Amino acid sequence: MSERRQAARSLHRDVEALWERIRAEFVLRDGFWLAVLFGAQAPDVAELVARTRDKSRMQAKPATPDAAPAGRGELTPVPGKPIQPSPKVGALLKRAASAVRSGHIGPAIDASLGALDAAASPEDALLAHAWLAQVWAKQDEPVEATRHARIALEGRLPLELDTTVALLEILSGSLDGEIALEAATALVELHRELVRRSPDSPTALRDLSVSLDKVAGIQQRRGQLDDALTAYTESLHLRRRIHTTYGDTPQSLRDLSVSLNNVAGIQQRRGQLDDEGNPESGEG
User: HEC profile for the chain?
Assistant: First the structure.
């Protein structure tokens, strides 16, 4: 078994229970907070430290993202037949899915934690983490959601398409700019493949345009204006194609308007930066 898969399996329910206690008592006072752990295993400590770091960063809302953590695995989807859970874990995940459909997120979290605790294989563990990511996202707990999504994708096993998309969507909202951009870029490539399979599907075309907007937004926040303009422009071309092919619908008109504004906004910002850097612009 690989070291990464061992790490995923090591995070059993006792770790999740301990994190619940830490998270509940988490307070930042004058930029300082301290927790001391006794008797925990090194992989568990590393996971709890990483979650605490993410929680503190979320509360502090830094102006610029930190570098990506060392040793992070790939987030790109893994091709192949999607993995399946064991019967026991599968039953717990079905219970979680039913709870989500009913709007009962607490029971869904409990069932997903139960699946993680009952995991008998790397496949079971990664699927449990994937479900925990999604239910924590519905609970509006982005720190927990992103941690579980990262573990699920870094396990490097093939997942269902809908699950992969959901996990990449969660990670594209990460506070870590590198992780967010990597996840959003992977989402673009996934949607490109779906467009190649169904080039005339308005849903596939729109999903690709939305994912391009997500990449561009991250690049814009990171100051990568040329890259952002490239992504926004491709999204605009896709939305023009949808509008030309399928006509005036409220969604196509709104999407086209948003894309035009996105491209114009980047061009305006680039022009302002060019003026600021031009000694003959008359400023100063």
Answer: CCHHHHHHHHCCHHHHHHHHHHHHCCCCECCECCCCCCCCCHHHHHHHHHHHHHHHHHHHCCCCCCCCCCCCCCCCCCCCCCCCCCHHHHHHHHHHHHHHHCCCHHHHHHHHHHHHHCCCCHHHHHHHHHHHHHHHHHCCCHHHHHHHHHHHHHCCCCCCHHHHHHHHHHHCCCCCHHHHHHHHHHHHHHHHHHHHHCCCCHHHHHHHHHHHHHHHHHHHHCCCHHHHHHHHHHHHHHHHHHHHHHCCCHHHHHHHHHHHHHHHHHHHHHHHHHHHCCCCCCCC
Please state, in angstroms and rounded to a whole number, the distance separating the CA atoms of residues 174 and 98: 27
Inter-axis angle of helices 3-10 and 142-154, to 10 degrees?
150
**pLDDT digits 0-9 by tens, 223-271:** 999 999 999 999 999 999 999 999 999 999 999 999 999 999 999 988 8
Please list the rounded mean pLDDT of every run of 10 residues in the chain (284 residues): 40 61 58 57 63 56 40 75 97 96 94 94 95 94 91 93 96 91 96 95 96 97 95 97 94 96 93 64 41
